[in-house]
């Protein structure tokens, strides 16, 4: 029997939380339909769990109409439902403390100050990010708190070029913390980490490093539906990069075009989404290899993965499934588990939108086999599986529902 400590709120669907938010505003379903632009029938189906409320653009539309944060609909962060997920969340409080201590005097003792070793810190930062990209969240959780502390000490101890090098490592450490917190649904803490990334990157005095940090900053605005602000940040970043020639700049430009495509998709601008995806694919072709500059994975593989993600964001199951056929066949087995698992989550959601239940379940199980905790804590998986169970209960699906906390 799985180890569970779920709260009753964890078993609510997004639709139930949407209904609670609506009632808190003393709105009728008709009023919510009018304010959101969705039909009354759609609002009823979402609230009753007969229609999966898992798409980012739809959640953002309702959140903005109700003047709520999207996580008030998705219910994140979830209470971990198994021991592995609990191990992954064990360091959330410690990481939060490290982020809050950012910019404060580190007050190292003599032993800490003498132990500062940039080469060793570089190895530790790389290992933390490698584990995070490998979806080894529990191990990442173990490494992050002492690593962030040691980086903050190093900033205080070093000066000149060495301090700028430490700021670069600190930015990468904060990026790892941000991604770790985001994966676990701690969006407010992830936002705080993003602010720290931007701050540390600015102090490296490296133009590309500073620009790379804006990728995450744009994501913060995108996450709350402020599409114009996100677009402004992305457009300025692409201007700053200019005509890229070096691999790092090509990779960064491609990553920003992917972010622009997602922002357009969430904002309902299909034409802009396709345009930016096309430009990202052009950059990937120029690059000719998969890279991980500034912890931003980009290259032919990632551009291909996004050709599935974007139709899913727009609710186009048929397009997503069609694209996935080739992408899945070509997906390298040694590609980052974090990205591979997310690809299969998108494939599952695409099949679900396309009415292909068995294929959707198979894709979710594949994602879970690659990255168990990350898949089980994924808001889209939890909501879609819950809706699947509502409409048809079966053994394997119910077992997955128990593991992701949908039951």
What does this entry look like structurally?
By secondary structure, the chain is an all-alpha fold. Among the domains are: 9-75, lambda repressor-like DNA-binding domains (434 Repressor (Amino-terminal Domain)); 77-205. The chain is built from 23 helices and no strands. It has helices at 14-24, 29-36, 40-48, 56-65, 71-74, 83-89, 92-100, 110-114, 118-133, 137-157, 160-183, 187-202, 207-223, 227-241, 247-266, 270-287, 300-313, 317-330, 337-353, 357-370, 372-376, 379-391, 395-404.
What's this, in brief?
The chain has helices spanning 14-24, 29-36, 40-48, 56-65, 71-74, 83-89, 92-100, 110-114, 118-133, 137-157, 160-183, 187-202, 207-223, 227-241, 247-266, 270-287, 300-313, 317-330, 337-353, 357-370, 372-376, 379-391, 395-404. It is mainly alpha-helical and 407 residues long. Among the domains are: 9-75, lambda repressor-like DNA-binding domains (434 Repressor (Amino-terminal Domain), Orthogonal Bundle), CATH 1.10.260; 77-205.
Percent helix, as a range, is: over 70%
User: Describe the biggest sheet?
Assistant: none
Shape: globular
The total count of strands amounts to 0
The chain-level structural class is: mainly alpha
Average pLDDT for all residues = 91
Oligomer: single chain
Number of helices: 23
Q: What gyration radius follows from the Cα positions, in whole Å?
A: 21 Å
What is the percentage of strand-forming residues? under 5%
Low-confidence stretches: 1-9
End-to-end separation in angstroms reads 14 Å
Strand-and-helix sequence, N→C? HHHHHHHHHHHHHHHHHHHHHHH
